[in-house]
């Protein structure tokens, strides 16, 4: 009986970890906007982009700018 509770608890922990946004969606092939920005050579900033860079997209769900 103890073993079944332990297995059920472990299964719940695994499923809860998978349900948290980035880990689960990244595992299915979805990449966050932050990942695509940094992979493309940009950087995510909450403030305005520095001189000689342009806004190329968003980061963190549209809360920041991707500057390249």
TrEMBL record:
Residues annotated as domain Beta-defensin-like: 33-68
Key words of the record: Antibiotic, Antimicrobial, Defensin, Disulfide bond, Secreted, Signal
One Gene Ontology term of the molecular function aspect: CCR6 chemokine receptor binding
GO cellular component: extracellular space; membrane; microvesicle; sperm midpiece
InterPro entries per the UniProt record, alphabetical: Defensin_beta-like
SUPFAM superfamilies, A to Z: Defensin-like
Keyword Electron transport set for record: no
Pfam families: Defensin_beta
Residues in the signal sequence: 1-21
Subcellular localization(s) per the UniProt record: Secreted
GO process annotations (BP): antibacterial humoral response; antimicrobial humoral immune response mediated by antimicrobial peptide; calcium-mediated signaling; defense response to Gram-negative bacterium; defense response to Gram-positive bacterium; innate immune response in mucosa; positive regulation of flagellated sperm motility involved in capacitation
PANTHER family (UniProt xref): BETA-DEFENSIN 1, BETA-DEFENSIN-RELATED
Record note on quaternary structure: Monomer. Homodimer.
Family: Belongs to the beta-defensin family.
Protein task: Has bactericidal activity. May act as a ligand for C-C chemokine receptor CCR6. Positively regulates the sperm motility and bactericidal activity in a CCR6-dependent manner. Binds to CCR6 and triggers Ca2+ mobilization in the sperm which is important for its motility.
Entry protein name: Beta-defensin 1
Organism lineage: Eukaryota, Metazoa, Chordata, Craniata, Vertebrata
